[in-house]
């Protein structure tokens, strides 16, 4: 699950256009002479120019025989983060993180979907807001980071016990997503990379259950893309079906997890199921919408105040759980587009 966010806006890192890197934009605070000594204006500019063309360094863990590679950049992040904590001025902290972490990883972040129009860019005002919030979550993020690689292999083992026809050859990356996503997959049926935003998972609760459920949810998407006659399509009905499958599978494989962990939301967990007809009608009337405002409200927004936000996860999960009374979960994963749309349409009609 992800939301729109542009990490690369503020400092140019690719090409020859460095219009944002003039003297008034990169003056270091006089309150921090240590930073002035360690990171001069010239060093800062040279680092930016160099890092735009250097492949990111990463901690690549040994891949098991069953699964793909794991790339863990969280140790690098925490190394830079700990250095930044001693700086009292926020912009100085951001610049340090840019030089020691974000800019060396710019290629990886681009692969994860961060972009800035025609230029690769890094840093904007929202980084400051994120960093202030992350400070309060850093301990939880560190705990999750320490167990994430082992948890990833454990959740794959758990999934394979239930779905033995899943041939897992996907890679995983553990990173900070600037609260942009908790997990997001890019790739194709054969090989995909799952990017985990450890900071976002910490923000959503920061427990082992939050991590495990997020991993299972994403594995379910990978499984559907491998075995289904349909891939995730842009239409609302398809997205409701896919998110419903992933959420329902998380409930099956984590029966003791709280509903707020399964739905990744306290609000959704407390919604009365007999009081969702208005949301079901909105979805039913817009099933063929392709990444429009209704789809965005029902499935994408995770931090904006609206009574309809992310209700699609609940609607989808209810639809799949109703269908599971007639079909096995394996059959539901392999449903054709026509079958999936019909099942979603019938379930939503029943809710209205």
Describe the structure.
This protein has 352 residues and is α/β, with parallel strands linked by helices. The protein has a domain at 230-352. 53% of the residues lie in helices and 7% in strands. It is built from 16 helices and 7 strands. Strands 2-3-5-7-6 form a 5-stranded mixed beta sheet. A two-stranded antiparallel ribbon has the order 1-4. β6 (183-187) and β7 (192-197) form a beta hairpin. α3 runs antiparallel to α4 (90-102) and α8 crosses α9. Mean pLDDT is 80; it is low at 4-57 and 116-122.
How many strand units?
7
The main pleated sheet reads as: 5 strands, mixed
Order of strands, main sheet, comes to 2-3-5-7-6
Helix count equals: 16
Q: Quickly give the structural class.
A: alpha/beta
Helix-strand pattern: EHHEEHHHEHEEEHHHHHHHHHH
Helix content: 40-55%
State the oligomer: single chain
Gyration radius, to the nearest Å? 22 Å
Amino- and carboxy-terminal Cα gap: 26 Å
* Overall average residue pLDDT: 80
Shape: globular
Give start-end ranges of low-pLDDT stretches: 4-57, 116-122
State which percent range the strand residues make up.
5-15%
């Amino acid at each position: 699950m992800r939301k729109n966010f542009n990490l690369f806006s503020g400092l140019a890192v690719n090409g020859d256009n460095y219009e944002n890197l003039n003297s008034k934009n990169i003056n270091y605070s006089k309150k921090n002479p240590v930073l002035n000594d360690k990171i001069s204006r010239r060093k800062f500019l040279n680092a930016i120019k160099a890092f735009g063309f250097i492949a990111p360094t990463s901690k690549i863990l040994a891949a098991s025989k069953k699964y793909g590679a794991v790339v863990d950049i969280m140790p690098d992040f925490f190394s830079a983060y700990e250095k930044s904590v001693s700086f009292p001025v926020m912009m100085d902290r951001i610049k340090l993180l840019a030089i020691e972490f974000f800019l060396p990883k710019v290629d990886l972040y681009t692969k994860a979907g961060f972009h800035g129009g025609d230029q690769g860019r890094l840093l904007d005002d929202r980084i400051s807001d994120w960093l202030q919030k992350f400070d309060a979550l850093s301990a939880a993020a560190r705990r999750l980071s320490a167990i994430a690689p082992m948890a990833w292999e454990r959740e794959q083992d758990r999934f394979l016990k239930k779905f033995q026809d899943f041939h897992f050859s996907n890679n995983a990356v553990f990173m900070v997503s600037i609260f942009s996503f908790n997990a997001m997959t890019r790739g194709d049926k054969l090989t995909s990379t799952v990017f985990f935003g450890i900071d976002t998972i910490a923000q959503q609760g920061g427990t082992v259950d939050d991590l495990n459920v997020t991993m299972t949810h994403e594995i379910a998407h990978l499984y559907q893309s491998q075995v289904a006659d349909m891939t995730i399509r842009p239409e609302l009905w398809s997205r409701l079906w896919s998110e419903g499958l992933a959420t329902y599978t998380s409930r099956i494989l984590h029966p003791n997890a709280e509903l707020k962990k399964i739905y990744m939301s306290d609000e959704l967990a407390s919604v009365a199921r007999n009081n969702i007809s208005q949301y079901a009608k909105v979805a039913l009337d817009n099933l063929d919408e392709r990444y429009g405002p209704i789809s965005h409200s029902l499935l994408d927004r995770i931090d904006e105040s609206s009574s309809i936000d992310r209700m699609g996860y609940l609607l989808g999960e209810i639809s799949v759980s109703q269908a599971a009374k007639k079909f096995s979960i394996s059959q539901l994963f392999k449903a054709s587009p026509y079958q999936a749309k019909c099942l979603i349409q019938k379930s939503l009609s029943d809710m209205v």
